[in-house]
Amino acid sequence: MFTAGAESLIKQAREIQDEDLQKFYTRVSKLLHGKDFGNETVDSLQRLYLIVSATKYSRALPEDVLQLLQDLLCSSKTAEQFQALSCAILRETFPCDLRNLSDEEGNSKTISHVAEVTLAQGSNQDKVSSVAHRVLKCLEARQPEDQINLVSRKLVDWLRYASIQQGVQLSSGGFFTSPRTRQPSPITEVDGAVAADFFTVLSLGQSYTEDQWMNMHAFSMIRKWLLCYSTDGSGNGDTDDKSEVDGSVMSMVSATSTSSRLLPPKERLREKAFEYCHRLIEQSDRKALKKSDAELQKACLIEAVTVMDIICREDPSFVYRAFACVKALYGRLSGDLAFSRALLPIAQFYLNHSETAAVDSEAVYRQLFTRIPSELFQEPMLAFEFTQFCRVNVKVLRESVGIFKHSFPNLFKPLAWNSPALISEYVELLPSLIGPDTAIEILHSLLDLPCLTAALDIQLRSASSQPSERVPLDPSVKVSSSMEAFRHPYYRGMFLYILRDEAGTGDTIDRLSVLHEVLADMADSPRIVQCAQTTPILLQVFFNEAAQFADEKLINQLVLVILERSSLLYDIPNYKREVQRVFSSQLLVLCKLHPSLIVEQCKELMEFSGTTGNIQSKENFYTHVVWAIGEYLSVSYDKRCTVEQITAFFETLEAVLFEITQVRLSASIPTYSPRVITMLLTTLSKLASRSQDLIPRVSLFLSKMRSFARSPAVSSWYSEEDIEEIHTRASELINLLKLPSVAQFVLAPSTEGTSPRWHRDTNTSLPLAMRAISKVLQRDSSFSPG
Question: What is the mean pLDDT of the chain?
Fold first, then answer.
């Protein structure tokens, strides 16, 4: 409980009126603007702290007072008393942004107060990270060379010279007898044998001595220590160093190691850490008696090879010694999938040092990129570590490892199985796999990614089924499920292709629709649906990368794939719509890069745009195709464009528009959106403006649109807004076509129309044409149809 005087002060602070509070804020502001802070300033700040802390609600201080308090807090020239008071006040206020802490002023006391305010105010992660970064820099500044060397010497002693006897155990005696001390027994290996060499984390005992515990702690931090402090330019090598742990076994043993003591502390630490890792690798070859010890062996292998890699990067003289050990380790582990996680640091070691040691590493990379993603894709941790390995080393892998780019069918397996967890990694990794020779096959593989997920699921279930259930089916038997199809000879080739390990066996398969049919029973699987949700993202990444290097030949191939695969997609909810959305946007990008593709692919585009069924199944994509035809089928973009081609496209689209605007009495007739109709009308008008013999035909068609739009059947299909949209577009187009020269300029503008001169110079044709168009559209109704 507070005293009566304290209670009275708190009550006054809580009940202070706004007018008095504002006067007090003004007084504090004047005091803080002064250069000399006296007792009056201290008293005012103490009163301000009482006011802001007296209630459970945070108070909002005036901006000028808040800024002055922040300046007071963040300046290293401020006296400790005023920094502490500023810190206490700011802790009780609304969160503020402490941005004015410069690197020069960031001493330890100032940073401590800033950190206190940041954490107390519940600031966001970015602010906390910024302050934490400054704390670390401050701590680093406190690590002079002699202290780093001191820690390095201690680490050497802890790693290499720990006791090889178990800790002393006290056995409990009777009630009237004192505990008996047992004689220490030797440390053992994981297979139960007595340890014949120095202590490591794989040495076992019933209890451990203090130096043995320090040995384990030292190994757990040695990797980070080497990365942070074991750089070249390490300090002076004191040749008469004494062990820092006097009176222990490690001191006596280390005193005999005269050759290594001639090394500077950091180099000596590398030497002893290397010996430690070498011993761990030897110990991992022993048969563990307990499963937990076997798992510990695997973890120690990964860490040991990683530390060796760091040591070799810092001092290449260790490379030849390390390779003999790592190569033997790879030979021992390569056939055992239980040690697959250890293959990643081994592959990293080969990647970093095989060139220095002139060692052939092809077998290591082939093992890594074939067996791990193909057989262990279902292990989330390994899949993540494997993907991280590829992402971190992507530049070296792309330039130096030939199998990397051609293993993308295998690399997609962890993605297909773990799509949500790995999507961000593959967004970064995918561009490195795409090249002129792999682009088409990768595009097909991305579109078939949900099929790959289904095939992997079936493969796993088939492997875990009873042997009798894995017998191939009679070819004459009709399958009733995807699992049966997996065992059926007729479908076996399709599954083998989807599950292939390397690229180069073909861009895709001929019977994709059949594969989609047999996988239909798995289309609702959550894993497959998740994979389908990530595919459009990867498709966008693919096209963005392909656009960087695609030549005319590749662009034509990509457009053909887009047209073909827009109809050949796994029937998953929303999947077709999302993929076609990406196709729509990317088709326009490809047309802009290479406008001549409309002429070069006229047969395929005419076939696609002339199929009415494409409107029903992929309306958005169809509309983009029609727009591209109207925009780029012009002699302005390709001198090879002929009147015959324009007429052929016109007649194809005219037939489609005629078919979808026929008024029939059947109630089952499909409804086409006004967007499709207006786009077809516009494209026909564009084509007619480039071949003026077609203008009468399209004008006649446009004049009939009002009767179409006003018919009772159409009125029942479309809203008033839709009908008005069709009618307005038809009226605008027929007005333009009555002046062919104006229509040609508006509907088929020159490719130079984007030049600023066409928009600024009043003597050029664009301003004149705009005025002419305005007059056309403002004329009386005699220009309107009907």
Answer: 82
